[in-house]
Amino acid sequence: MNIAFKPKDYKTDVKPVWCPGCGDFATLSALTRSLAYLKLPKENVAMISGIGCSSRLPAYIDSYGFHGVHGRALALAQGLKAARPDLTVIAAGGDGDGFSIGGNHFLHACRRNMDLTYIVMDNQVYGMTKGQPSPTTEPEWVSKMAPHGTRLRPFQPLAIALASGASYIARGFAGDPKTLTQLIVEGIQHRGFAFIEVLSPCPTYRPEHKQWKLSVQPWPHPATDDPVKAAGFIHGDDGLSTGLILQRDLPVWQPVVEVSANVEDIAEDFAL
Questions:
Q1: What are phi and psi of 87, to 5 degrees?
Q2: In whole angstroms, what is the distance from residue 270 CA to residue 230 CA?
Q3: 73 in helix, strand or coil?
Q4: What's residue 240's pLDDT?
Q5: CA triple 37-43-47, angle to 5 deg
Q6: Could you tell me the CA-to-CA distances from 26 to 48, 156, 171, 174, 175 in Å, in that order?
Q7: Is CATH 3.40.50.970 the right assignment for the domain spanning 15-269?
Q8: d(CA 200, CA 263)
Q9: For residues 130 and 205, is the Cβ–Cβ distance under 8 A?
Q10: Are 123 and 93 in contact (CB under 8 A)?
Q11: What distance, in Å, lies between the first and last C-alpha atoms of the chain?
Q12: Is 121 helix (H, G, I), strand (E, B) or coil?
């Protein structure tokens, strides 16, 4: 069996179509470095996504992959993990895909705590569809698509993940690929649902986020396994601190699957 241990060996020949300067490039690089560091055979990895700029990742990762429909990355990833618990399953997407149409799946994926990793590249905008506000956009942000802003409080991914029961919660920054790689490695190694929010600037529709590199800072507190402490950290933060926030040892849910090859028995179960 040919096992690749170099980041470039986990990349396909497909050239990413992201805009120059997009934070998703760095996330792709951190992900391939993580896979190489963990020495994961490509045939044992599955990359699952929904729809959006960041959801193109399965095309760029040389492993099994599935580019699904909008908001359903976690539904697909959990179904795969249930059927093939031996696989390393990684789901990826953006803030629109994951927290809007996919928000319900996000809540229950945290609650189930299946052993998979979810990476969300958060740029606070719908980049693929020309700049509409996303669930994490500030209420006063004005654009051609939202000339009066949304006037809605932004979705708080880390707080929602904590309240919903995720057992690994972290935030990374595309401009700090070394730390981001470490978080992804630890997230994959963690036994349970690992949620990693990645601050991933969109230079096309949110050019002001280029200033993130001047404001992002390491998380000022050591990681905790206490959800009460983690809640205080998250709600007291300005949204620009990065690092591991919470890691807990919680029961991992895996369905007990009983398969019957007897078609007559299956038909009888569904008979009216």
A1: -85, 150
A2: 46
A3: helix
A4: 96
A5: 75
A6: 18, 23, 14, 5, 7
A7: yes
A8: 49
A9: yes
A10: no
A11: 50
A12: strand
Report percent pLDDT > 90 for the chain.
83
Residue 19 has pLDDT above 80, yes or no: yes
Domain ranges of the chain: 15-269
Helix (H/G/I), strand (E/B), else coil: 18: coil
The encoded tokens of residue 211 equal: 């200033």
Distance of CA 17 to the CA centre of its chain: 20
Span 138-162, mean pLDDT?
91
Residue labelled with tokens 């007990």: 256
The tokens for 73 are: 């990355």
Return the amino acid letter for 80.
L
Which long-range contacts (C-beta less than 8 Å, at least 24 apart) are formed by 82-89? 82/114, 82/254, 82/255, 82/257, 83/257, 84/46, 85/115, 85/254, 86/44, 87/44, 87/45, 87/46, 88/40, 88/44, 88/45, 88/46, 88/188, 89/46, 89/48, 89/115, 89/116, 89/117
- Rounded to the nearest angstrom, the gap between the alpha carbon of residue 125 and the centroid of all alpha carbons in its chain is 16
Q: What is the pLDDT of residue 180?
A: 98
